[in-house]
Design brief:
single chain, Rossmann fold, seven-stranded mixed beta sheet, globular, TEII, 37% helix, hydrolase activity, TesA-like, Oleoyl-ACP hydrolase
Length: 252
């Protein structure tokens, strides 16, 4: 791909591996950025070409308008990700990223491009619903939510100026995910749901409900921890993804 296709705005490769036999595409959580997946890229660089999405409105894209609708975000991401399907592709999305990955996969399968597997981490199934209004809170309310979820760098939370810079993107992300669904659509790729056993945002039954959203295989893995269980359990999660990547190459 060249810069003219827009991929330079959306895709980040921290450890480029253009000759890798498989690709891993990572979708960040609400308020998150591509750099969240830097450790994943470092750990899996010998197994895949790891690419992380960078949504508008943050870091080097902070001057761009935020996207506060999951469907619009997926519509914009799908054509950028489509050229990556020249080899087996695995999607990994955490929290809001799980839903974005699901919607991108739905759009791409209409073009005959299907991921080998979709990892839906820390997010209840699209068919489940909750009344949530974080995006309607004042700034202090949003900051309180971020602290409660422990998913934001403590340095950011302690820097008033930096915090005020990132809040618009965070509010936009919360609006996108809190106004999404419920939907009963499906994808044709296998889904693995990953969830922490003490996640206030996703119960184990809500994660199990992803089973209804695939026409292929489904499994679930429960880890000790809260919404961001995957940070302390990184080694286990990475081992699971590595196994899928190697299996995809073996089958291919």
């Amino acid at each position: 791909m060249t810069a003219t296709d827009g991929s330079d705005l959306w895709l980040r490769r921290f450890h480029p591996a253009p000759d890798a036999p498989a690709r891993l595409v990572c979708f960040p959580h609400a308020g998150g950025s591509a750099t969240f997946y830097h450790p994943v890229s470092a750990a899996l660089k010998s197994d895949s070409d790891v690419t992380a999405l960078q949504y508008p409105g943050r870091q080097d894209r902070r001057m761009e308008p935020n996207v506060d609708d999951i469907g619009e975000l997926a519509d914009r991401i799908a054509p950028v990700v489509a050229p990556l399907f020249d080899r087996p592709v695995v999607f990994f999305g955490h929290s809001m990223g799980a839903v974005v990955a699901f919607e991108v996969a739905r759009r791409l399968q209409e073009q005959g491009r299907t991921p080998v597997r979709l990892f839906a981490s820390g997010r209840r199934a699209p068919s489940t619903g909750r009344e949530e209004n974080v995006h309607q809170r004042d700034d202090d309310g949003i900051v309180a939510e971020m602290k409660a979820m422990s998913g934001t760098d403590a340095q950011v939370l302690g820097d008033e100026e930096l915090l005020r810079m990132v809040l618009p993107a965070i509010r936009s992300d919360y609006r996108a995910i809190e106004t999404y669904g419920p939907v009963d659509t499906t994808v044709d790729c296998p889904i693995t749901a990953l969830v922490g056993d003490d996640d206030p945002k996703t119960t184990v039954p809500e994660a199990q409900a992803w089973r209804a959203h695939t026409t292929a295989a489904f499994d679930i893995q429960v880890f000790q921890g809260g919404h961001f269980y995957l940070s302390p359990r990184a080694a286990e999660v990475i081992a699971t993804v590595r196994e899928t990547l190697r299996g995809a190459v073996a089958v291919g």
